[in-house]
Automatic annotation (TrEMBL):
<dbReference type="Pfam" id="PF01910">
    <property type="entry name" value="Thiamine_BP"/>
</dbReference>
<comment type="similarity">
    <text>Belongs to the UPF0045 family.</text>
</comment>
<dbReference type="InterPro" id="IPR002767">
    <property type="entry name" value="Thiamine_BP"/>
</dbReference>
<feature type="domain" description="Thiamine-binding protein">
    <location>
        <begin position="3"/>
        <end position="94"/>
    </location>
</feature>
<protein>
    <recommendedName>
        <fullName>Thiamine-binding protein domain-containing protein</fullName>
    </recommendedName>
</protein>
<dbReference type="InterPro" id="IPR029756">
    <property type="entry name" value="MTH1187/YkoF-like"/>
</dbReference>
<dbReference type="InterPro" id="IPR051614">
    <property type="entry name" value="UPF0045_domain"/>
</dbReference>
């Protein structure tokens, strides 16, 4: 499965930034060893259901250490038999259909 998550703390820096809290969540995800990638809006994580959801839980709880409230947006692609390699394979399939 692949999940795309966005974790948003309610606590913020003086300038309105949440980057420090989000970085802590991303570090938990990177330390998990699961395939992942971060872009401007989401972090994608790939693996089996239980291991992915455990990492999501740990990342949310890490942010909750410094914020009284945490929002989580999660989108999942659950496809039997496609547990690994799909973050890149899906993009490759898409690119093969785009004209130059």
């Amino acid at each position: 499965m692949i999940v795309a998550i966005s974790i948003s703390p309610t606590a913020q820096d003086d300038d309105g930034s949440v980057a420090a809290s989000v970085a802590e969540a991303v570090q938990v995800i990177r330390d998990s060893g699961l395939p992942n990638e971060t872009n401007a809006m989401f972090t994608n994580i790939e693996g089996e259901w239980d291991e992915v959801m455990e990492v999501v839980k740990q990342a949310v709880f890490k942010v909750a250490e410094t914020s009284p409230r945490v929002g989580l947006v999660l989108k999942a692609d659950v496809r039997a038999g496609h547990d690994t390699g799909q973050m890149t394979a899906k993009v490759e399939r898409l690119e093969s259909h785009l004209s130059d």
